[in-house]
Amino acid sequence: MAGFALKYSSTAAIRAPGTSPILFKGDLCSSIIKSKNYGFDAVEIHIRRPDEIEIDKINEYCFKNNITISTIGTGMSYVIDRLSLTDLNWQKRKMAIERLKGYIDLAEKLNSGVIIGSMRGKIDFDNYNKHLSVYRENILELTDYAEYKDVPIYLETINRYEVNFHNTIEEMADFLSSINSSRLKILIDTFHMNIEEADMEESIKKYGNYVGHVHFADSNRRYPGKGHISFRGIINALIEIGYEGYIAFEYLPYPDPDTAAKKGLDYLLAIEKSIAAKENLLL
């Protein structure tokens, strides 16, 4: 554990519903500056379309503020445009693939990763095998493209009430092992894990080699420390697996974005400090 240091990412969107679990909304450059001032290492951006981004401007602001874009969230393409990888309509699937390739192109230019969460879509269990067949085919096409572009893709394990397949880390790890792509990893989210995992810490340790990105939110989707999840245990598990990726704050901006950002980060850094102090005492 000696010398560990986790990397934290804020979340930002140009526009998103008030109920979205995203910290900062509005001008992305302003969100980059604010994130840096609060002490974040990166920003996760959530956008409806890849062409919404002024790439050169974002890269310039990141360079000036010594911060990075960790990941690109794609969920609005499903929530607003209903594009998914399990759609049995081939035209809609083609649109989803092209949209995701656009996100991958953007990620290449921003040196970031791409999240596929709700864009997985949902399965009609009367056509279970058809859905999974087209889903697998589409993921294979996207991973081939991501490998060519050298961009990581993070498939998110989402609870059963929002997406009705691949809800646990074990289920997602089994799927990833069948794809066998170095560019395909799991995104674990503590809010969803709290619903689906029997033991969150053990799941992280058991499947740590598949974990590529992390979302933190407490049990009530508020900032860490506002619910009942043991983030000390989660952090210890991430340290144990040698996790080197980012931890993005995908939670509700309550009572306001600035308070939620500051209190969440302060809470987690205090846990890190406590763990480091305990380790030093044991040495």
What would you say this structure looks like, in words?
The protein is of the alpha/beta class and 283 residues long. The chain has a single domain, classed as Divalent-metal-dependent TIM barrel enzymes (TIM Barrel). The protein is 46% helix and 16% strand. The chain contains ten helices and nine strands. The protein has helices at 28-38, 55-65, 76-79, 90-110, 128-149, 169-179, 190-196, 200-206, 231-240, 257-282; strands spanning 7-13, 24-25, 42-46, 68-73, 113-116, 153-156, 184-189, 211-216, 246-249. Strands 1-3-4-5-6-7-8-9 form an eight-stranded parallel β-barrel, surrounded by six helices. α5 links the parallel β5 (113-116) and β6 (153-156). α4 runs parallel beside α5 (128-149) and α8 runs parallel beside α9 (231-240). The radius of gyration is 18 Å and the shape is globular. The N and C termini lie close together (11 Å). The mean pLDDT is 95.
